[in-house]
Amino acid sequence: MRQGYKVVRLYSGILYSCIVNINEGGVIYTPEVWVHPVVNSGPLCVFNNLEQSRIFHRSNLYCWQIYTCEYTLSAIEHVWMKDDNRKKTSKYDLLRSEELRYSTDFADGVKLLRKVI
């Protein structure tokens, strides 16, 4: 088990994945509940340090909250999301060195603990 920071979007009282839309494999988060990637999507993205999560938070208009979290590290080192036909696609194959360069770990499970921002 690891400790990290999850940046989420709050909309109508519900915490959503910050970047990935629900219809593309994003998930809904509930504090103190383990969340896992949607079938044909994932892994989930988690920051391993607060400073980098704040930088990402400030750079994205849709990311409104940061939570401390526990997570299980994934062996997968790229992110899969559903395409328009709800099939697994590498169209959004995001590498750590590019779009997810802000100290991101990939997780098979995430549990939000405490709101930081």
Provide structural commentary.
The protein has one helix spanning 50-59; strands at 2-11, 14-17, 28-29, 34-35, 44-47, 65-73, 79-82, 88-94, 104-115. A hairpin with a 5-residue loop joins strand 7 (79-82) and strand 8. The protein is globular, with a radius of gyration of 13 Å. The chain has one helix and nine strands. The longest helix has 10 residues, at 50-59. It has 117 residues and is mostly beta strands.
List the topology elements.
Blueprint: E1 2-11, E2 14-17, E3 28-29, E4 34-35, E5 44-47, H1 50-59, E6 65-73, E7 79-82, E8 88-94, E9 104-115
Antiparallel strand pairs: 1-2, 1-6, 2-3, 4-9, 5-9, 6-9, 7-8
Low-confidence parts: 90-97
Note the overall shape. globular
Backbone structural class: mainly beta
Radius of gyration: 13 Å
Distance separating the two termini = 23 Å
Order of helices and strands: EEEEEHEEEE
Largest sheet: 7 strands, antiparallel
Tally of alpha and pi helices: 1
Task: Please estimate the helix content.
Answer: under 10%
